[in-house]
Specification:
The protein has a single domain (about 25-130), classed as Lipocalin (Beta Barrel), CATH 2.40.128.270. Helices cover about 25% and strands about 35% of the residues. The protein has 2 helices and 10 strands. It has helices at about 1-20, 90-105, and strands at about 30-35, 40, 45-50, 55-60, 65-70, 75-80, 80-85, 105-110, 115-120, 125-130. Strands 1, 2, 3, 4, 5, 6, 7, 8, 9 and 10 form a 10-stranded antiparallel beta sheet that branches. β3 and β4 form a beta hairpin.
Length: about 130
């Protein structure tokens, strides 16, 4: 009798855990950790915020970026991003260009096994990010 209860308790625990998974939320800022196969340059700060009005924006490391977006369930796409035109160190500018190009290729989002949000292109590695604290 005790053994019959164990699978039921396990199933209930797993259902409870599934609802605790992070979600991609509007009006919440996410900090980018990796772009594809490469981590960010130390102390660079790239962010994504999805506005409820269908406009996304954030920091591209040197400049501020903006784009419209469309989200339906796990599908997510960005229009071609625009950005301000400030100049920074060449390495930051290269990283910013990779980030803006990667945003334009995003097709869907999900959550990894460690709870990290991932924005996936059609092929290749995702943009990986965490919700900002605060």
């Amino acid at each position: 009798m005790k053994h019959a209860l164990a699978p039921t308790l396990l199933a209930a625990a797993l259902v409870g855990c599934a609802s605790d998974r992070p979600q991609l939320e509007s009006e919440k800022t996410y900090q980018v950790e990796w772009i594809g196969e490469r981590p960010l340059i130390d102390r660079s700060h790239l962010t994504i915020t999805l506005g409820e009005d269908g406009r996304a924006y954030g920091s591209a490391g040197c400049n501020h970026w903006f784009a419209s977006y469309n989200r339906e369930e796990d599908k997510l796409t960005f229009a071609q991003p625009g950005a301000t035109r400030k100049m920074c160190a060449p390495a930051l500018m290269e990283q910013e260009q990779r980030f803006l190009e990667a945003l334009g290729q995003v097709q869907r989002w999900d959550v990894s096994g460690i709870g990290q949000l991932q924005l996936w292109p059609a092929t290749g590695k995702p943009i990986r990010l965490w919700p900002e604290e605060g």
